[in-house]
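Input structure tokens:
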């Protein structure tokens, strides 16, 4: 999940110079919208108890796939107008939401003794994605929609993986997260207790 969020986020950011309009104005729009979206996420997470981590990750990933599929089609047909910028802005905000879900789930699903190491390992995997992301932009030389289509395909894989393996961690008491060896001999299982 971290690898996909990283490679998609960096690749679309590196590809932002292909969006019509002034590059600096576009970057200002991205920055403002991302900052506002973080405040909205905190408000929704605080005031909606039914808004879970799995909902955050899978919902955001589904919107990313939809937005970048639309951008793939627009790029294929050569449309780069205002709608292209708006859809790109929305897709980028939701890529940021998948990042937030990755951090939250990693921190909340690991016991205290290994939380920093686990998050650091996830960050290392994300950096590998960041290193590989310029190659996606280089693929635009052969086929202009390649970055956007790759984001869609990786996003769909990420969506399936998170649906299958992502555990719900909202309202978990971090002191109660521990590795339980009693399930099967030699196979540690993550066990967590919800806050009472």
């Amino acid at each position: 999940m971290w690898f996909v969020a990283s490679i998609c986020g960096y690749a679309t950011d590196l590809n932002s110079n292909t969006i019509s309009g002034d590059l600096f104005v576009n970057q200002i729009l991205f920055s403002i919208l991302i900052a506002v979206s973080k405040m909205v996420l905190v408000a929704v997470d605080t005031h909606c108890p039914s808004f879970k981590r799995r909902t955050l990750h899978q919902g955001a990933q589904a919107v990313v796939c939809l937005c970048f599929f639309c951008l793939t089609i627009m790029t294929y047909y050569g449309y780069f107008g205002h709608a292209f910028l708006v859809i790109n802005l929305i897709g980028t905000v939701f890529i940021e939401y998948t990042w937030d879900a990755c951090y939250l789930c990693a921190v909340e699903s690991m016991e205290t003794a290994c939380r920093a190491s686990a998050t650091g390992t996830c960050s290392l995997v994300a950096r590998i994605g960041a290193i590989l992301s310029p190659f996606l932009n280089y693929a635009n030389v052969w086929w202009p929609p390649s970055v956007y289509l790759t984001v869609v395909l990786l996003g769909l894989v990420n969506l399936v993986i998170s649906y299958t393996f992502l555990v719900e961690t909202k309202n978990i008491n971090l002191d109660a997260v521990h590795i339980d060896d009693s399930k099967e001999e030699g196979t540690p299982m993550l066990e967590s207790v919800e806050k009472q």
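The chain has a mean pLDDT of 85. Strands lie at 178-184, 187-191.
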